[in-house]
Backbone:
């Protein structure tokens, strides 16, 4: 069995008034996520990504269908605590997630709620802050940190719970390029070195190409999934669903449109430069 098994899942938000029907936003969605995978979840605004993030860790429960985490059905309320321990959620805005006035107290908040002994809490907080490269800021005030630093502290707070899986909902949306790089570097290290399963929700295609698998949603359904190469070579399908492709892929797509014979599966600038310089040399 996969680490997360979503089967035939339907979910809708409660109606605001009596004469309004429940609006279903996730429709019969099935998805399996293996332990140790790095999955990017894409989709234009309102396609249901953040709703899925909360369904993955049992914060929301299916109206029908099932979400099973590490063999545990999220609908079983007695397992809620165990499920949230295994799947940590980092929300889009770190300001909503940081609660304490000192960085290390903030990171300790989760492990304290797990009822761990003080020495274990101390060791987890130190390790988590080191993992996101924020240990030297442990006695700083979170509100004085930059956006990237705050987001890394929020990630440390989740790491300190030692989850097997971390779901990150647009963790870099508010960051400048440097802050985005810092957070992406942290995510890659957690996945590769610690084997933590990553589900990354993002609107940035250059982040999605770093995942092992890309899942594309539209209106509460999965429209395509596969390796970044498989997904981003379907430029027209993605454009139909109001999504971009990585810049290098877009350039190659346009060159092909202009009758130039270049590959469809180029994802980054290095491969793009290699291809174009080979082409220029051939012409010369
Ligand atoms: N708390 C809520 N109550 C009612 N409807 C909601 C609520 N949260 C989301 N929705 C609706 O559910 C649908 C899916 O929203 P969701 O936030 O999951 O999309 P998303 O893919 O995360 O979008 P974005 O890229 O803008 O973050 C949207 O139509 C949205 O309006
Ligand atoms: Mg969202």
Residues:
């Amino acid at each position: 069995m996969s680490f997360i098994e979503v089967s035939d899942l339907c979910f809708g938000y409660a109606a605001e008034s009596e004469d309004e029907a429940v609006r279903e936003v996730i429709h019969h969605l099935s998805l399996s996520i293996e332990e140790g995978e790095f999955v990017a979840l894409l989709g234009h605004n309102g396609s249901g990504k953040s709703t899925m993030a909360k369904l993955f860790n049992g914060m929301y429960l299916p109206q029908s269908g099932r979400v099973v985490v590490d063999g545990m059905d999220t609908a079983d309320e007695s397992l809620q605590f165990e499920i949230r321990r295994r799947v940590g959620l980092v929300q889009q805005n770190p300001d909503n997630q940081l609660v304490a006035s000192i960085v290390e107290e903030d990171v300790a908040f989760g492990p304290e709620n797990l009822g761990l002994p003080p020495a274990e809490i101390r060791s987890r907080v130190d390790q988590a802050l080191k993992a996101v490269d924020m240990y030297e800021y442990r006695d700083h005030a979170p509100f004085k940190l930059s956006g990237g630093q705050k987001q890394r502290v929020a990630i440390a707070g989740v790491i300190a719970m030692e989850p097997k899986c971390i779901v990150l909902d647009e963790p870099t949306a508010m960051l400048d390029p440097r802050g985005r790089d810092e957070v992406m570097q942290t995510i890659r290290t957690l996945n590769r070195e610690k084997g933590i399963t990553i589900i990354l929700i993002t609107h940035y295609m250059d982040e999605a190409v770093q995942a092992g698998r890309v899942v594309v949603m539209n209106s509460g359904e999965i429209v395509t999934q596969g390796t970044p190469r498989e997904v981003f070579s379907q430029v027209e399908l993605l454009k139909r669903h109001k999504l971009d492709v990585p810049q290098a892929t877009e350039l190659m797509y346009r060159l092909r449109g202009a009758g130039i014979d270049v590959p469809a599966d180029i994802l980054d600038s290095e491969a793009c430069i290699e291809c174009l310089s080979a082409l220029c040399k051939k012409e010369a």
Observations:
- DSSP finds twelve helices and ten strands in the chain.
